[in-house]
């Protein structure tokens, strides 16, 4: 039997075979009954095999044969499984040379397509918003920082989300894990943005066991939700990686595999706080740095959980018609145990270490398996790609920034993407030496921005922490930068140019050597900036305090103007004249639906 801990329990027994497990042609009742019994025995035996070696697992699946997946292979719409890890560093996977063991990720990637020119955003909210809308941050107003729990802010409600588009073509949509796209209004919640069900957290981080989060002193609350309500009844103090895996197993066990499924599994791991069940530390006692050791335990736990998710897909008849996509949401944070070596920088920066991510696609539906894709791919590309795979449509009047890259991944064709706007943040202007003059009168280089066009990458402003952090930096008991390759930004420096294809580690700045290319990329930045919408970054709202909401983080904004709207029944009871009633109704109708000073979705 599989060990407990982060992996979750073995999948529960499958649904009744009469429902959908063993459909077939009309047979004699005796033969059909015997067939059902055989199916049940096969599934029961298979559910015991979580902890077996690969050879035994393969034998069990072979024994189950077509009884496991008799009908899913003919479905035209594939099951879409998107797994998002949190803060996993570029080096922190076995096939990138890490000392952390990730056998599941290594195997799935080796049998699928590894994405080795794959980009996300440097922090949580931006990556998640771009995945779910297919739009750059500048086109949703979320180009600055993250959505904080006390802010009256969320993913704009006028953006059609990926689950909403998939529901249009018959998909069941489920989200498990971290949301982090705002919740100040009920309309911002996951179940109002296209998901049939939601089980997870609304904030960016929290305790893995208690699910409590303090944003600041006196601003603390509970953060685990079942759809639109606090999940008190579903909380048994289980480590979140295990808890989310168990929920996925339950979803798969109860869903008909002949019906298309979209599952968005956004694990909390390996984001801080650094917590993991004790048994996962056993293989990492040699790692002296406590943060790195805890991080390694968390990642091993996550790897084992993904193994059980994959096994559940096979057990319940989904795997043969599934597309599994794995991605980190941003680079690792070295001070919290993550490693992006040999890339430069870390989470929260626009250096490669902050935005180049671990990613792969695993699926029996891939035409070219066991390959490496070095074509340019960005997290916005999943939106049109998955909608296309689902046989859905994107409205012609909707401008998105992603590309359908399925043929690039599955068949090895060239990517339709030739550039990426990493971001333009007009609020973050901390480059004291930045100026219009430094940007040749084309761009103010005090503004933090970054863009990639073919082989070239341009950064302006202050890109963030710029060290290279090699593995030996984690050989100390505490945080120590003695081994880091540190760079002191030159006086007056506010613009950098790199040939990323030739220099993926950003060691040779070519901005002085190729001013013509610099100007070309600055003009491209300026063109993008003309399409930007205003930044949405409102101040803290004291009404967000969980103390005012039963100790729970959750929607707090109420449309107070509705209270002033007169009731028609009251008007009739008071027998007001029609003229007065009409005036009052017009007055109520002309009022804003949003509280003064608070943004409306």
UniProtKB/TrEMBL annotation:
Keywords: Calcium, Glycoprotein, Hydrolase, Metal-binding. InterPro entries: Alkaline_phosphatase_core_sf, ARSB, Sulfatase_CS, Sulfatase_N. Residues 564-586 have a biased composition (Basic residues). One of its GO terms (cellular component) is actin cytoskeleton. Residues 533-601 are annotated as: Disordered. Its cofactor is Ca(2+). SUPFAM superfamilies: Alkaline phosphatase-like. PROSITE patterns: SULFATASE_1, SULFATASE_2. Belongs to the sulfatase family. This is Arylsulfatase family member J. It comes from Saimiri boliviensis boliviensis. The gene is ARSJ.
């Amino acid at each position: 039997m599989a060990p407990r801990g982060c992996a979750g329990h073995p999948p529960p027994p499958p649904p009744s075979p009469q429902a959908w497990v063993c459909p077939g042609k009309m047979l004699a009742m005796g033969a059909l009954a015997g067939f059902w019994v055989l199916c049940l025995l096969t599934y029961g035996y298979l559910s015991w095999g979580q902890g077996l070696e690969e050879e035994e697992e393969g034998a069990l699946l072979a024994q189950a044969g077509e009884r496991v997946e008799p009908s899913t292979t003919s479905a035209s719409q594939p099951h879409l499984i998107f797994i998002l890890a949190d803060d996993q560093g570029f080096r922190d996977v076995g096939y990138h040379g890490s000392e952390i063991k990730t056998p599941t990720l290594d195997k799935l990637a080796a049998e699928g397509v590894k994405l080795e020119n794959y980009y996300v955003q440097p922090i949580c909210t931006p990556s998640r918003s771009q995945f779910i809308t297919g739009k750059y941050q500048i086109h949703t107003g979320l180009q600055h920082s993250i959505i904080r729990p006390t802010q009256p802010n969320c993913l704009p409600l006028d953006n059609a989300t990926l689950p909403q588009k998939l529901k249009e073509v018959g998909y069941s949509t489920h989200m498990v894990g971290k949301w982090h796209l705002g919740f100040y209004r009920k309309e911002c919640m996951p179940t109002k943005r296209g998901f049939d069900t939601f089980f997870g957290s609304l904030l960016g981080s929290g305790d893995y066991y208690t699910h409590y989060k303090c944003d600041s002193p006196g601003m603390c609350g509970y953060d685990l939700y079942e759809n639109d309500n606090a999940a008190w009844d579903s909380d048994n103090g289980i480590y979140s990686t295990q808890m989310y895996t168990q929920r996925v197993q339950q979803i798969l066990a109860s869903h008909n595999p002949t019906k298309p499924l979209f599952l968005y599994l956004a694990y909390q791991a390996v984001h801080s706080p650094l917590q993991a069940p004790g048994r996962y530390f056993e293989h990492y006692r040699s790692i002296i740095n406590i943060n790195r050791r805890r991080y390694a335990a968390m990642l091993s736990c996550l790897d084992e959980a993904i193994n059980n998710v994959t096994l559940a897909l096979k057990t319940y008849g989904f795997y043969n018609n599934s597309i599994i996509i794995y991605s980190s949401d941003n680079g690792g944070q070295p001070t919290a145990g993550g490693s992006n070596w040999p890339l430069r920088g870390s989470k929260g920066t626009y250096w490669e270490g902050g935005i180049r991510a671990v990613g792969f696609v695993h699926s029996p539906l891939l035409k070219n398996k066991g390959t490496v894709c070095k074509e340019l791919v960005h997290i916005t590309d999943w939106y049109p790609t998955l909608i296309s795979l689902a046989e859905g449509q994107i409205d012609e009047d909707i401008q998105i920034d992603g590309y359908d890259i399925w043929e690039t991944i599955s068949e090895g064709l060239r990517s339709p993407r030739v550039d990426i706007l990493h971001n333009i943040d007009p609020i973050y202007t901390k480059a004291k030496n930045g100026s219009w003059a430094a940007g040749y009168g084309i761009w103010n280089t005090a503004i933090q921005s970054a863009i990639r066009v073919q082989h070239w990458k341009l950064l302006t402003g202050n890109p963030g922490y710029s060290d290279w952090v090699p593995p030996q930096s984690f050989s100390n008991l505490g945080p120590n930068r003695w081994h880091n390759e540190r760079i002191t930004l030159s006086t007056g420096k506010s613009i950098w140019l790199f040939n990323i294809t030739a220099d993926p580690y950003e060691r040779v700045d070519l901005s002085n050597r190729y001013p013509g290319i610099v100007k070309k990329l600055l003009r491209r930045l300026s063109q993008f900036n003309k399409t930007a919408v205003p930044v949405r970054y409102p101040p803290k709202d004291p009404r967000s305090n969980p103390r005012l909401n039963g100790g729970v983080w959750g929607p707090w904004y109420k449309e107070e103007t509705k209270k002033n709207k007169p009731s028609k029944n009251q008007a009739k009871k008071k027998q007001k004249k029609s003229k007065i009633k009409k005036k009052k109704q017009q007055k109520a109708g002309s009022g804003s639906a949003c509280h003064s000073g608070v943004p409306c979705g």
